[in-house]
Design a protein that fits this description.
Elements: E1 6-10, E2 13-19, H1 26-29, E3 35-38, H2 54-64, E4 67-75, E5 79-82, E6 96-104, H3 106-113, H4 120-142, E7 145-151, E8 157-165, H5 167-199
Antiparallel strand pairs: 1-2, 2-7, 3-6, 4-5, 4-6, 7-8
Length: 211
């Protein structure tokens, strides 16, 4: 395991945040709406090789009246993707350009949303979904995926989990695990106190809660 990129003490517990180096490719391994066609000589991007050239994908879209989105890439100390090249850095003349297309098959979209027509409202909704997929893909490409390990104050591992997109989400989930463990310990201690009271156990024999 690599070294933790962040370690904090929280309610007498230790939380360690690690980069997730074995995460799944969300475009290739998840059930996404878009079919990503990426033509690049250096990088293996996208999730489909159904069309060997851009012209083939454009011809298919015209024939089936499917949706096709331009996909742009910025490549400089890392890769980032976007549907638009109207803003920096995707309009950078040196490090940005069109990578390919994202196809949303007409029949697939209609079946997915239970519709009979691709209305403008539905097209806008599909675009928002694709933008969300790209945001997730960008996190994957930039390594913005993490896991946590939660340990007690005597270094006993309590819980761990991986695959969190965004360091803040990972840390917040780890804190919720600690909160649960602390509340659980308090509840268990309260039950013991009630038993001690019922059994009239002397104070000197009662053990304080360690949370």
């Amino acid at each position: 395991m690599t070294e933790a990129i962040e370690t904090i003490e929280y309610k007498k517990h230790k939380i360690e945040i690690f980069p997730d180096e074995n995460c799944e490719n969300p475009i290739q391994n998840w059930d996404v709406l878009g079919e990503y066609f990426c033509w690049h000589r250096q990088y293996n991007l996208g999730n489909s090789s159904r069309f060997s050239t851009p012209d083939e994908s454009i011809a298919y879209v015209r024939q089936t009246r499917s949706l096709l989105f331009n996909l742009y890439m910025y490549d400089h100390s890392g890769i980032a993707l976007s549907l638009s090249n109207n803003h920096y850095p995707f309009n950078d003349r040196w490090d940005a350009g069109q990578l390919g297309f994202i196809l949303v098959d007409r029949e697939k979209a209609l079946k997915e949303f239970g519709k009979k027509r691709l209305t403008e409202q539905l097209k806008q909704k599909i675009r928002q979904i694709i933008e969300g997929e790209i945001e997730t893909y960008n996190q994957y490409l930039s390594g913005d995926i993490y896991g946590y390990v939660v340990s007690s104050n005597n270094d006993e591992q309590i819980d761990s989990c991986w695959g969190y997109y965004g360091q803040d989400d990972c840390l917040n989930e780890a804190k919720s695990i600690v909160d649960y463990e602390v509340n659980k310990a308090v509840r268990e201690h309260c039950q013991k106190v009630k038993q001690w009271i019922r059994n009239r156990v002397p104070f000197q024999y009662r053990i304080s809660a360690t949370v």
